Amino acid sequence: MQQRIAVYDDLLRALQVMGTIDDKTPKNRVLYAMWLLETKQLCLGFDLQQECSFVNITEVLLQVFENDIEIYWMAKGFHVLSEEIREEMGMLLDLTETILEKEDNGIYIHLKQCDILPGLPLAKWYSSFFSGVLSELALIRIWDKICGRSNKIVIFVFIEIMRTLRRRVLRCMDLKSLLECIDSVSGSTLIVLVTKAQECLPQIKDEQETADMIVNKAIELWQQNKGHKEYNIPKQLN
Hints:
Blueprint: H1 2-18, H2 27-38, H3 53-64, H4 68-87, H5 89-103, H6 105-113, H7 122-127, H8 136-147, H9 153-164, H10 166-169, H11 175-184, H12 208-225
């Protein structure tokens, strides 16, 4: 632990000396800058405000835990898991369509006919483990599965979000209306633009009961399907 404290303090001090951060820099951005510096990715003029899974994950951890040093190390660990999901993203997206078609053909057909599926920010949601989409307490249960390398759980979370909002989803005729539908569950006034779908942060997180129900159903559905060979993600060849 002492070594982690020393590394944390050194990184923080270096960023302060460099003028990269100050007292007004949000904590999740500070931790992001520390990670960039530690991994030698921080360059002059780097925009710390850009969206990335590390920042989104860190924001959730800051809401749940109090020790900044432990949060930083947890964020680094989750980022490794996020990169693993990115490597599997092509297969995860293909499986998403396959499983959605099986579990709710009506939603699948509707999303296909309206050409909504290709525009959904699934890569962002999956790689950030739905940070900013569901409540922090619900997310922890999903992340527990991710830590066990059960990456497919993200597919079932998405499917259960669609099924929970089914009647509203079937009334959405384009990507913008669907993203607004997801966002509206929290009562947020955020306007989601279709052209910036990859940057959106639709939220159900203020509806704890809804989030818990989605996670419960997602875990149940994942458990029902995890033994099916057709849903297995093949191992990458060395």
